[in-house]
Amino acid sequence: MEGSRLPLSENSATALQDRMLDALSSVIDPELGCDVVNLGLIYGLSLTANIATVTMTLTTMGCPISDVLEQMIDNALTELPEVAAVNIDLVWEPAWGVDKMSRYARIALGVH
């Protein structure tokens, strides 16, 4: 049983990542009315020297609310005591599609 447990540092990292995802779930895309996590826009999270890096995409290139989303993400993550600053790494590969959405988002948005 002892061998199946993650080392403390991995447990702590997993707990922090869960808290970061929980904070990001409060960031609602104003156009779609669903959070960025359930929309599948968040591709990765890391924290180095108190700087959170969010690897993410947008539903469309040239999204008119990208600046708003970035500010909302910054605000949500800097509420965590471990996060002093946020870098957003906006990527286009892999391309976003409805297949990235959670079941919750699909139901909420009526996507079948």
Protein model, in words:
By secondary structure, this protein is of the alpha+beta class. The protein has a single domain (about 1-110), classed as Fe-S cluster assembly (FSCA) (GMP Synthetase, Chain A, domain 3, 2-Layer Sandwich), CATH 3.30.300.130. Helices cover about 30% and strands about 20% of the residues. Strands 3-4-5 form a three-stranded mixed sheet, covered by helices on one side. The protein starts with 7 loop residues before the first helix and ends with a helix. InterPro entries: Fe-S_Maturation_MIP18 (IPR052339), FSCA_dom_sf (IPR034904), MIP18-like (IPR002744). This is Metal-sulfur cluster assembly factor. Pfam families: FeS_assembly_P.
Helices, strands, pairings?
Elements: H1 8-24, E1 28-29, E2 34-35, E3 42-48, E4 51-56, H2 66-77, E5 85-90, H3 103-109
Parallel strand pairs: 4-5
Antiparallel strand pairs: 1-2, 3-4
Domain MIP18 family-like: 19-87
Pfam family, one: FeS_assembly_P
InterPro entries: Fe-S_Maturation_MIP18 (IPR052339), FSCA_dom_sf (IPR034904), MIP18-like (IPR002744)
